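ok so I'm stuck.
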Amino acid sequence: MSQMIDAKATEKPRPIEVMVSERVDRGLTRMWKARSERQLAGELVDRVLLARGIEPDAQGDAFLRPSLKAMHDPSGIPDLDKAATRMLGAVNSDEPIVIYGDYDVDGVTASAILIHLIRAIKPDAKIRSYIPHRLDEGYGINREAIRTLVDEGAKLIVSVDCGITAIEPAKVAKELGIDLIITDHHNPPESVDDLPDAFAVVHPRRPDSAYPFGELCGAGVAYKLAWRMATMDAGGEKVSPAMRTVLVDLLGFAALGSIADIVPLVDENRVIVKHGLSRIPTLPNEGLQALIVASGLDSEKIDTEAIGFRLAPRLNAIGRLGHAADALELMTDAKGQRAVELAEQLSRVNDERKKQELAIVTQACEMAIEAGMTGDDSRAIVLAHEDWHPGIVGIVCSRLVDRFARPTILMQRTPEACKGSGRSIEGFNLHAGLESCGHLLGSFGGHDMAAGMKCDPEQFDAFAQAFIAYANANLSAADLVHHAKYDCVADFSELTVSAVHQLDRIAPFGAGNGKVRVRINGLKLNGAPTVMGKTGNHVSMRMGSRNGRGPMLRVIAWNWARHLDRIPNGAPVEVIVEPKVSSWNGNTRVEPVLVDLRVV
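replied:
not stuck anymore, here's the structure
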């Protein structure tokens, strides 16, 4: 019978100082490991910053900690001081003022900014708003609205997010003896002589502008105007603590407009969005808080993604299928049960928008393929249909751009007119393309990447042919390919929870400052990818280093189920991923999101 020996009992007792030394060593090891992880995380952040043209030292620190002091002096925008002086005078002399806004999120938030600021200066100011009906009146300032507002007693009209091309409406305002102030950010004319003849034209990219940053959205321009009005009212650069709180709160509305309008989140747009996002959850605005609840965001972090996919679509939907005046009421006057009702109404309209959007996407894709507009011979898509809602076709354009990687214009055809929207791809100036066909259009306007237009139904075919010819001349077949860009190469072992949290400091993410993407080589799938999600469209993959070292990570691939037949089990792969941290049931781990994959 063998004798069982208790190994612990037979060990010689170790000196106490050895045991203490080992505890110290273990503590130092943990400290070294933690410091090492922080250093690795910092190195990864530095590599990403360098890839984006930002030096990691002082420049990087300023980027990661954007200060309100980095915002430019609003007086640098042409005509802004002139506009602020006139508006402040109107407020103090009780002149009826109308804020004339656009019907999208940018226009609504820009309107809200000026209304809230004017009421902060003088609570009983004679201030009202006007937003044209998208279908009945169309985009921008119209002559009939100017006449109606003057008849109703308006003494000063201030446009936000529209008006830079309002030549005729400005003439009407002048003939009627009313001051019109235009604030806008859409593409201006090339010459100052071609600006509307208004009392003031406030635009950071006017031909005569020396303002250091020209990429503000309409809400951003309105915010700069509000800021200057506040300092003028205070009689100096410093405002009262109460007014300072108002100005900081209004950054929340400016952030909403900036994110929804997809302006580049760099320079002072980054400052606006960074600080504005932090204000949104606590803004003393019952309408916005009701919308946050209706969007299911009351217990979640509100970031650019939450605004872009949940708040902004609700605010936009009512302008597409109803009247944006409801959205502006929600952002300004709605309280109590009225705020709840409006927020729920916006959610219902957004659900209807989704249904119509899906139907139009399906039909437009089929039509584009049948018309031969998805091959190399046609480097743009231009379509019209009687059943398409003109308030929804813009979103559908984006879906077709995502699928077919070419500029897309979709319009509703009626006996009176074809009206619609367009979206572009990187490197193709949509506005310039419309200018080249301007003689075939009744009206158009917008950005390099998005625009609206209108034409006579009899001219539609000629316009479609001319626009496609322009696209064919200015785009190559290589331009019609989606590119998966990444910041730098990384190792799986670098993707720690600490590193991902450090990378989050590069937020807010959006246009001009996309989500961090890293390329990882030398990987191997661990078994077969598995389908996930209610619809079975998504995929979960486990993968690790081909040499067997380091961690095994789960990678989530949204809408990748259709690619499974091209991904062999256990295949060696290279991937581009967005590093993410997942928290579930108290467990926190890194779960990157797949952007692209290549089987080696």
